[in-house]
Specification:
Layout (H helix, E strand, L loop, with lengths): L5 H9 L5 H24 L3 E5 L2 E5 L18 H9 L3 H15 L23 E6 L10 E4 L6 H10 L4 E5 L3 E5 L17 E2 L2 E5 L5 E6 L27 E7 L4 H11 L5 E6 L4 H13 L3 E3 L11 H14 L10 E5 L3 E3 L3 H10 L4 E2 L7 H7 L4 E6 L2 E7 L16 E3 H7 L4 H10 L9 H7 L7 E2 L4 E3 L3 H4 L29 H6 L4 E3 L3 H15 L15 E7 L7 H13 L6 E11 L7 E8 L4 E8 L3 E3 L6 E2 L2 E9 L2 E2 L4 E2 L11 E10 L14 E7 L2 E8 L8 E7 H4 L9 E6 L9 E5 L10 H8 E7 L2 H4 L22 H17 L5 H12 L3 H5 L30 E8 L4 E7 L5 E5 L5 E8 L1 E9 L17 E13 L7 E4 L6 E6 L4 E8 L7 E2 L13 E7 L8 E2 L14
Helix pairs in contact: 1-2, 2-4, 3-4, 17-19, 21-22
Length: 1052
């Protein structure tokens, strides 16, 4: 039958000349045709939404531009399921279209051959030979595919090349093997590999029985992963400075933690670009306030819903690249690094800056760390995903494009400007790759890896993103929390806690190196953040003696952004009535959760505005209604019940409830968590951490439900039951008390524990006062800005740890904290290069402006008895030398002192520090250091010449180094027991000052006869230095400078 096109049908309707009935049919068909066209058009275009705080934009990933077949019969069960679960007409149409394209083979792009230097077209399908192969001794052992219907040379080559292997092998008709080595293979007659036809290509053979025919994929060499090494502060970086665009992609409501993170990485010479998920308007409003005050911080009004695993995350990242290049003040960045609200530095930001500067031109991408073939399967590359309705739907299997080498590992990346610009260009590879990755799960985890490995940028990759992630996959791969947003099971890292923060201690961070770690959450464990902060930041920026230093906050409600809940209004009225106020509530201004330290119970801080315009701020305590059995029978099958808690908005990985106020409504799911501790007899018995338990639910004395919960495996000892309140209790208008009883299945007479909870509904408002009286306590309140500013629990109380603009107070205290930190590190010092680097990093990054505050008002001579034998003693009958000295701190582990020069050209003559390590920091002015290394391997009597009983040493000239206390140049240097140990110091500017940090403490130094001038020496030249007596013309005046008593480090 001939198809009647839309033009012919329109003619039938408009022109007439046909039977009237047919006209009606034609009209209906035309209308359906144009309706279909409209829906398809809508599905491929972005939806523009304007909000009060600025323009936001939600992107719907585009489908490949082909001539679509508007409808087809969907037979794939994945596609049928996806379409049935989609809620919006646009999403259903989009899924229908993509499923039809997938079915008809028009979904995938065709890609050009790789331009990577490791790819060679001539190697594609180059035959290596036929080889003996056995199941227990494979020639190509790295990865194996089975293609019962499609195996062929092209299919096998495509998949092995995709996973980055050098060779592919065909065997037994359906088998495809991949590997990188054939060196030990036994070659056999070629005929043995011609026993099975290829199911995907009848004119080809796919090996034999125990016979594999091997070919090249097109890759020249096995990939060698370049990884950076830690760059100590002592090492010079000769390359020009770089500008980093720090992209903060934020979610959640814990804005104070974000501000704390921003403070820890802030440097005025870099750029900070903030994207807030379009659903998080509270976070957006708070970040906008910061961006208004700090010129190199920008918040974008172009916002995306960046769901887990979604294509929107990659689209957002690339939109930031485009937009930032158009902002005049921001457009000259060299690198873009992205971070989340749960990141924090674990090494000084200056160390990170130094490493990136040294590796200019390289991009920093994390490797998956295992077999690429397994990674591809695990990431779901074999499936097509489609993002709409804020969900990633899986709609079917794909035939992945040829000529692509796939890699990936993490969506936390550091991209150099050249690769970033290439990624958003209209060149064939990046353009087609962007289209393809719109239908790939977790696209940012692999897009830049794949783009680089298939282009000229393949040699410009450092396979490290310089981050440490707190993986514990047994706990982090709980899929329950992802079921609502993605048709896949994924993993997420855990929050650092007391027992896991050892993972990012400084020596481990330096050895990797890793400069940032994740995840941190102040509402789970703020002490982990404090440890990272004290390790990565100058003590001048940390105020540990501030009353709120250990406080954690998270916003719950903000007027003008969130919708008031009936339970919140009831609590606000209850609070006003409790303090016997005659004021009537007008509105709730703000509600926040407060945790005073990581083990403290969460309290509620609520601000209420009354009808008269007065503000009341309340501190509200939640009362517990959990009763554990008093009979002592809390052990079940070797597990002891420790605690019972309940709540809503349960987070499965961290095992906490994010609804901090404790309200349960008819729309919620109640989660009851039991915490168990195993006895010795079950600690080594299997992998479970809890016994089988029965939960019974009661309305007063009436049993209404029960469930049996099987043993669970939790790193936190948790076990849960979830109870859908809405399904069991609908239209609740009475005031019942509800209970959860916890029983051992073997003994249902007496419960192990009982908890009581209430359900707040619109229909039972009259019950709320009684509920609130039982479940909440008004602990404190204030009514004026001045009064609230003095309450440490108030949101008005200063919180300097989260204030990027906080000015330094009490410099003596900060200096003392830094010295104590140095003393602790010196106590642990083991002589390794890593230990030296740790102390050097702390010294190098200490704020010089603090040290400058201790300098004397004028450079004058003050004669004292010397504290140390390191420098000669001044006497009253000598003129001022122009060089001042002060002892600052000394114990059995370290010694700290300071020197000052009145004018340029003054010199501390050539001397050593026997068997010591030292770090020198210039904090004002500038010096030139000329140094020599003692050649320890030739340090014997044959090379000693006597002059007045003093040795003559063989040394190597190390050259000159200039250190400056200004904003530019190098500030610090380190010396070892031999390397650079003999040196002289010359001031280059008047009023120059520096500190020396010795570990172990400094002993008497030795002096040496001046060597030839530097211009007559070359670096690496060996010569001999004659040790001499202390020069008669060298002595120091005493400088007034703070001195500190010996710290008590016995508990450190």
């Amino acid at each position: 039958m001939k198809f009647l096109g839309p033009q012919f049908l329109i003619q039938m309707v408009v022109v007439g000349g046909v039977n009237t009935n047919y006209r009606h049919y034609a009209l209906v068909i035309v209308l359906f045709f144009f309706l279909n066209v409209y829906l398809l058009y809508s599905a491929q275009n972005s939806v523009q939404i304007r909000k009060d705080e600025g323009e936001t934009r939600e992107k719907t990933p585009k489908v490949p531009l082909v001539d679509p077949i508007s409808t087809c019969e969907i037979v794939d069960e994945l596609a049928k399921s996806a379409i049935s679960r989609a809620t919006s007409p646009g999403c259903k149409s989009k899924l229908q279209l993509e499923a039809c394209q997938l079915k008809n083979g028009t979904f995938s792009e065709s890609f050009p051959q790789s331009t990577c230097s490791n790819h060679q077209d001539a190697l594609i399908d180059q035959r290596i030979g036929c080889f003996l192969d056995k199941k227990d001794a494979r020639v190509l052992k790295e990865f194996e595919y089975k293609f019962p219907q499609s195996n062929s040379k092209s299919t096998c080559r495509k998949n092995c090349y995709k996973a980055g292997f050098l060779y592919y092998g065909l065997e037994f008709g359906l088998e495809c093997f991949c590997g990188n080595d054939v060196a030990n293979a036994t070659e056999i007659d070629s005929g043995e590999c011609r026993n099975y036809k290829c199911p995907g290509a009848e004119d080809e053979f796919c090996g034999g029985f125990n016979a594999v025919e091997i070919f090249r994929t097109g890759l020249k060499n096995k990939i060698v992963m370049l990884k950076p090494k830690y760059l100590p502060p002592a090492e010079n970086v000769s390359k020009p400075p770089i500008k980093i665009l720090f992209l903060l992609q934020l979610n959640g409501r814990n804005e104070r933690q974000v501000k704390r993170f921003l403070k820890s990485i802030y440097l005025p010479n870099h750029y900070y670009y903030i994207h807030v998920d379009k659903r998080q308007n509270y976070m957006y409003s708070e970040m906008a306030k910061i961006a208004e005050k700090v010129p190199n911080i920008h918040i974008t009004s172009t916002r995306y819903s960046t769901i887990w695993g979604g294509a929107s995350l990659l689209q957002m990242f690339q939109q930031v690249i485009r937009d930032s290049m158009e902002i005049e003040m921001f457009k000259d960045w060299d690198y873009i690094f992205n971070f989340s609200e749960s990141d924090f530095p674990i090494l000084p930001i200056q160390d990170f800056e130094r490493l990136i500067t040294e590796h200019q031109g390289k991009s920093f991408l994390a490797s998956h760390g295992y077999n690429t073939g397994k990674f591809i399967q695990k990431q779901g590359f074999e499936f097509v995903f489609s993002e709409c309705d804020q969900r990633m739907f899986r709609i079917g299997k794909r035939e992945f494009p040829e000529n692509l080498r796939i890699d990936g590992g993490s969506d936390w990346v550091g991209i150099h400007r050249d690769l970033a610009e290439y990624s958003i260009s209209n060149e064939e590879l990046p353009q087609k790759l962007r289209n393809t990755f719109e239908s790939i799960l977790l696209p940012l985890e692999s897009f830049y890896h794949t783009l680089a490995f298939n282009s000229k940028f393949c040699d410009d990759i450092m396979m490290s993103n310089l981050r440490l992630t707190n993986w514990l996959r047994k706990q982090g791969c709980r899929c329950a929390s992802l079921k609502q947003i993605v048709d896949w099971c994924g993993c997420s890292p855990l929050v650092f806690r007391e027992d896991t923060k050892i993972k990012f201690e400084m020596q481990k961070a330096i050895s990797k190196p890793t400069y940032f770690a994740r995840k941190f959450d102040s509402m789970v464990d703020i002490e982990a953040i404090e440890s990272a902060e004290q390790q990565s930041m100058s003590t001048s920026k940390i105020q540990m003696d501030q009353p709120t230093y250990h406080f954690a906050y998270a916003n719950i409600f903000k007027f003008g952004i969130d919708k008031e809940k009936i339970a919140h209004r009831s609590l606000a009225s209850f609070a006003l009535n409790t303090i016997k106020s005659h004021e009537k509530m007008a509105k709730i201004v703000q509600i926040d959760a407060l945790r005073a330290h990581h083990n403290a119970q969460i309290e509620i801080v609520m601000t209420v505005e009354t009808q008269s315009g007065a503000n009341f701020e309340f501190l509200i305590h939640r009362k517990s209604h959990v009763n554990l059995s008093t009979s002592g029978a809390l052990e079940v099958d070797g597990y002891v019940l420790k605690d019972v808690v309940y709540g809503t908005k349960f987070e499965w990985k961290e095992e906490i409830c994010r609804e901090y106020m404790g309200f349960v409504t008819e729309k919620d799911t109640l989660h009851t968590r039991l915490e168990w501790s195993p006895t010795e007899r079950v600690k080594k018995n299997g992998d479970k951490t809890s016994p089988e338990i029965e939960f019974q639910y009661r309305n007063g004395p009436e049993k209404i439900d029960k469930s049996i919960v099987k043993p669970y495996d939790s790193v936190f000892g948790g076990q849960f039951d979830s109870w859908d309140v809405g399904k069991r209790l609908s239209n609740l208008s009475t005031c019942p008390d509800f209970f959860v009883d916890v029983f051992s299945p073997s003994s249902s007479e007496s419960p192990l524990a009982t908890l009581r909870f209430s359900v707040y509904t619109e229909q039972n408002v009259d019950c709320h006062v009684a509920y609130l009286r039982d479940f909440f306590e008004i602990v404190d309140f204030c009514t004026s800005e001045t009064a609230c500013g003095e309450k440490i629990w108030s949101m008005s109380y200063p919180d300097p740890k989260s204030d990027i603009q906080t000015k330094m107070e009490n410099p003596t205290r900060h200096f003392q904290m830094m010295l104590r930190r140095i003393a602790m590190m010196a106590k642990r010092f083991d002589g390794s290069p890593e230990s030296v680097n740790i102390i050097h990093s702390v010294v190098a990054n200490f704020d010089s402006s603090i040290l400058r505050q201790f300098l004397p008002n004028r450079f004058s001579r003050v004669v004292h008895t010397m504290f140390s034998s390191v420098v000669p003693t001044t006497t009253t009958n000598k003129e001022s030398s122009g060089i001042q000295y002060a002892d600052i701190y000394k114990d059995e582990f370290c010694h700290v002192n300071a020197f000052g020069f009145a004018h340029a050209g003054l010199k501390i003559p050539l001397h050593d520090h026997p068997a010591e390590n030292a770090v020198m920091k210039v904090f004002q002015g500038a010096v030139r250091i000329r140094s020599f290394t003692i050649l320890e391997e030739t340090f014997d009597e044959d090379y000693w010449e006597q002059e007045d009983g003093r040795p003559r040493l063989l040394v190597r000239y190390e050259g000159e180094t200039v250190l400056s206390g200004g904003s530019e140049g190098r500030h610090s240097a380190a010396l070892g027991p031999n390397i650079g140990n003999i040196h002289e110091v010359v001031s280059l500017e008047p009023h120059t000052y520096f500190c020396d940090f010795f570990f172990p403490p400094a002993a008497s130094c030795n002096y040496y006869r001046p060597p030839p001038p530097s211009e007559s020496l070359h670096v690496g030249q060996t010569l001999r230095l004659q040790q001499i007596r202390s020069p008669a013309d060298f002595y120091c005046d005493i400088m007034e400078f703070p001195q500190f008593q010996k710290f008590n480090l016995s508990g450190e």
